Amino acid sequence: MSNNTYTDLVKQTFYFPQEGFHVEDGYLQFNGLDIKSLITKYGTPLKISYLPKIGMQINKAKDMFAKAFKKHKYEGDYFYCYCTKSSHFSFVVEEALKHNIHLETSYAYDIEIINKLYEKKKINKDIFIICNGYKQRSYTSRIAKLLNTGFKNVVPVLDNKEELDAYKRSVKVPFKLGIRVAAEEEPTFPFYTSRLGVRAKDILEFYVDNIEGYEDKFQLKMLHIFLNKGIKDDIYYWSELNKVVNLYCQLKKICPELDSINIGGGFPIKHSLGFEYDYQFMVNEIVGNIKKACKKAKVKMPHIYTEFGSYTVGESMAHIYSVIGQKNQNDRETWYMIDSSFITTLPDTWGIGERFLMLPVNKWENDYQRVVLGGITCDSHDYYDSEEHINEVFLPKVHSNGETEKDKEPLYVGFFHTGAYQDQISGYGGIKHCLIPSPKHVIVERDRNGKLVDWLYAKEQTSQSMLKILGYIK
Ligand SMILES: Cc1ncc(COP(=O)(O)O)c(C=O)c1O
User: Fold this and answer.
1) Distance from C-alpha of 251 to C-alpha of 245, rounded to nearest angstrom
2) With the CA atoms of 283, 287, 289 and 290 taken in that order, what torsion angle do they form, in degrees rounded to the nearest 10?
3) Is 396 helix (H, G, I), strand (E, B) or coil?
4) SS3 175
5) What is the pLDDT of residues 181-193, one digit of tens each?
6) What CA–CA distances, in Å, run from 474 to 284, 432, 433, 438, 468?
7) Which of 353, 256, 239, 347 is nearest to 300 (CA)?
């Protein structure tokens, strides 16, 4: 018997099985879901949203902050906000809201989502809505309307100094304010300082000139920082975090209302079976660092807010493709052509070289080989050729002319933890490169009795819908 099977490869490279992934009767299971049965029912290409994962992630983070607060005897509260931009879908946001969270918004239209959630009684007016972004009038006026109609915990986070004028004009009730501190970018980035937020060295003066003395109208409550590169145990992260904590300590002495630090998003997720990240260690360090600085400066510790996007929703989703053909274009390169496109369905693989956790769904007992996955657009960049842990892609050989039913099946390839940003960046529906349609989308969730149920959220996009956008059909 061969010891070059895909199973052998995985077991030699990683600990396997592991949380969320195991193989049963030769088929990969994702969080206990039998992907093959969903493929049989719905076909490929297929997007699957497994909603229970969202609550699991939220509760895991809350638990870690609770443990860190206990460990450090931290005197403040933790607020988990979900940043809607990572996936605005109602089924995602409503699932997250079942777990007692708050929300973060990025643009004017997010506020329309807030209005709808309120109408549907999914939120009440006590929820914290953290409003980020470089705001146009359409956004500030909607924020003002929320405040004027009694959403008392809407916190516009000033991206620039001028933004405050818009609220001064339009908000008729006392309200809370945040300021985003512009982060220094990592040395590898083309810019020194983020374009988002207010320069750290300008903030004290801005407070004294524009906010102090108006406390009956608006109060500075929150300092906000978000680091592009995420929450990582490196010098860059700790020095940027310390910068905002030190600013908090300085400001707190003249601005007693200030009581919160928002560290934004940036918790990583698993993009490879080899992923190792000690979440609890990082939370302990963040909480410990904030406490230490506050003790030293003799100021009250702030409440801590996070706005995890990828972490909340990323791991809840999978994209499943069939390999529809194999092409050997020379003696060394084997292409596996998929029944969709990487550019249109997983745009981060193409735009920023993102790697997702990739595994075959079937044929784990076949020998493996090095391949390049190709999409069916005409674009030469529509390919996937390296994984997070290795600059290559290995998949089982197809043997499509074999004897058994299993042999006759196509190879199915899954990309996992794809739930954040991909639909948002690709544009859901709409026209697509080479008019490759958006795949069908299935939701898996628990019903009232806790039983898992699956249902079709969206069919594969039709030619009619594209022709309409293109002006061929009225
Ligand atoms: C202000 C802000 N908060 C939160 C997030 C979410 O980040 P992530 O998805 O990495 O958690 C972003 C992402 O761009 C952001 O800009």
Assistant:
1) 10
2) 140
3) strand
4) strand
5) 998 888 888 888 8
6) 58, 19, 22, 21, 6
7) 256
Side chain identity at 290, as an amino acid letter?
A: I
Find tokens 């310390």 and name the residue.
Answer: 242
Round the average pLDDT of the chain to a whole number and report it. Answer: 96
User: Does residue 83's CB lie within 6 angstroms of at least one atom of ligand 1?
Assistant: yes
Backbone angles phi, psi at 25, to 5 degrees: 50, 35
Distance 207 CA to ligand 1 centre (A): 25
For residue 144 and ligand 1, the question of a CB distance below 6 A is answered with no
Ligand 1 in reach of 314 Cβ (< 6 A): no
Phi, psi (degrees; rounded to nearest 5) at 14: -130, 170
> What atom of ligand 1 comes closest to residue 267's alpha carbon?
11
> Contact at 8 Å (CB) between 382 and 350?
yes
Ligand 1 atom nearest to 106, measured from its CA: 1
pLDDT tens string 330-375: 999 999 999 999 999 999 999 999 999 999 999 999 999 999 999 9
Tokens of 351: 């735009």
Q: Please report where in the chains the tokens 């058994």 appear, as a residue.
A: 404
Tell me, using a 6 A CB cutoff, whether residue 80 lines ligand 1: no
Domains of the chain are: 6-51+316-469 (2.40.37.10), 74-308 (3.20.20.10)
How far apart CA 299 and CA 205 sit, in angstroms, is: 20
**pLDDT score of 119 more than 80:** yes
> Which atom of ligand 1 lies closest to the CA of 86?
9
Distance from the CA of 39 to the center of ligand 1, in angstroms? Answer: 33
